[in-house]
Write a structure and sequence with these properties.
Layout lengths: L8 H7 L1 H14 L6 H14 L3 E5 L2 H10 L8 E5 L5 H8 L3 E5 L10 H6 L5 E4 L11 H11 L2 E5 L7 E3 L5 E3 L6 E5 L13 E5 L2 H10 L4 E3 L2 E2 L10 H11 L2 H19 L5 E2 L14 E5 L1 H13 L29 H9 E4 L7 H16 L3
Parallel strand pairs: 2-3, 2-4, 4-5, 5-8
Antiparallel strand pairs: 1-9, 6-7, 8-9, 10-11, 12-13, 13-14
Length: 378
């Protein structure tokens, strides 16, 4: 049996090695390393895949969030609501721009932002909501849209973990994650479902005015060369990464299906196992399993992680410390009692290996050891 990894990037690369190498070589031969034709080609192909009017590639997923928020003309002290249970980048850029991140609790099933908690946290300073489509499935965008419309708020989707997931609206329509809010953002960090071989990101919008503004903010505030209409940043997806992503985009649905197949294998093995809860699927979203995250009893989580490591099975805790308890946000004085679901999740979650190259032998080995661990606690 091959060594089990949380993410097997080398195995994935080997299957498309010739295509990847050729695409990189073409960029090197062209020497069009910045804003070369591959960047435009990838942009166009991702727009078609998402059925979106505008995709603006950028340097990374954090830049995508920052530039998106910069485009909204918010003022220092304005508030943006975002989930407490997520990676820090989502809230980090809000604070960095002099705005206030308002953390809210998440749903106990999907771990996505709770619309009920959003409503309780609205104030006259609230200007936007940033839902995170965590672990591979969409937040409840119907309810979030209703809240945003009633309160004249922007919605920026953080789609870094759910590119390719589909959302089914209550009216029967469907859209790809990242195309539902005013703006969508994503990351092409190597471990993502669509990952580059370095950093990369993109901003997605169907709003022509926002797209125009986002483009020049990401290019030093410059629409016409050497004429700077606003303070901007320098954030570009380089041509080599675009060429790699252009190849891998053709396989994204296949990659997501491979993850879903592995998740189904885990589900079947664990569905009747005591002391464990398999991932919840909301009816309004497909789940593309950026992570496969189990819930277990707090006193068993860390012993399980240790046991798996002893048997050469990697696992991860996403996320061990809620954002409201991070030292970086200590000055905001958040009350732990306002985040009961997040507090519980941070003590109970554990993510198993999940990637496109998992083999049956590896999956069987993983589930057998998880089952063996819990059988010892009966």
């Amino acid at each position: 049996m091959k060594e089990i990894q949380m993410v097997d990037l080398k195995g994935q690369y080997k299957k498309i090695q010739t295509l990847i190498n050729n695409s990189i070589e073409e960029v090197i031969n062209s020497t069009a390393f910045i804003n070369g034709p591959e960047v435009k080609s990838f942009q166009n192909n991702l727009e078609k895949y998402l059925d979106a009017k505008h995709v603006i590639p950028c340097g990374n997923g954090t830049d995508a969030l920052q530039i998106s928020i910069m485009s909204l003309n918010l003022k220092p002290g304005d508030e943006i609501i975002t989930p407490d249970f997520t990676f820090i980048a989502t809230a980090e850029v809000i604070a960095f721009l002099g705005l206030k991140p308002v953390f809210v609790d998440v749903e106990p099933g999907s771990f996505n932002i709770s619309p009920g908690s959003i409503k309780k946290s609205l104030s006259t300073k609230t200007k936007a909501i940033v839902p995170v489509h965590l672990f591979g499935q969409c937040a409840n965008m119907d309810e979030i849209h209703n809240i945003a419309k009633e309160n004249n708020l922007f919605v920026i989707e953080d789609t870094a973990q759910a590119l390719g997931a589909e959302y089914f609206f209550s009216n029967g329509l469907k859209s790809k994650a990242g195309t539902i809010g005013d703006i969508g953002t994503t990351s092409f960090f190597p471990s993502k479902n669509l990952g580059a071989y370095g950093d990369g990101g993109a901003i997605i919008t169907n709003n022509d005015d926002l797209a125009k503004k986002i483009r020049y903010i990401g290019n030093h505030g410059m629409e016409t060369k050497y004429y700077h209409d606003s303070i901007g940043v320098n954030s570009r997806l380089d041509s080599i990464q675009a060429a790699i992503l252009n190849v891998k985009l053709k396989y994204l649905d296949e990659y997501n299906q491979s993850r879903q197949k592995a998740a189904a294998f885990y589900d079947k093995a664990f569905q009747n196992l005591e002391n464990i809860t398999i991932p919840y699927r909301d009816k309004f979203s497909t789940h593309i399993f950026h992570q496969y995250t189990l819930l277990t009893d707090p006193e068993l989580r860390d012993p399980l992680k240790k046991y798996l490591a002893q048997n050469d099975i990697p696992s991860m805790i996403y996320y061990p410390v809620p954002l409201h308890r991070q030292k970086a946000f200590g000055s905001y004085g958040y009350d732990n009692r306002k985040f009961p679901v997040t507090e519980s999740l941070s003590q109970r979650v554990i993510s198993l290996p999940m990637h496109t190259e998992l083999e049956i032998e590896q999956l069987e080995y993983i589930v057998n050891h998880v089952i063996k661990f819990f059988s010892n606690y009966k």
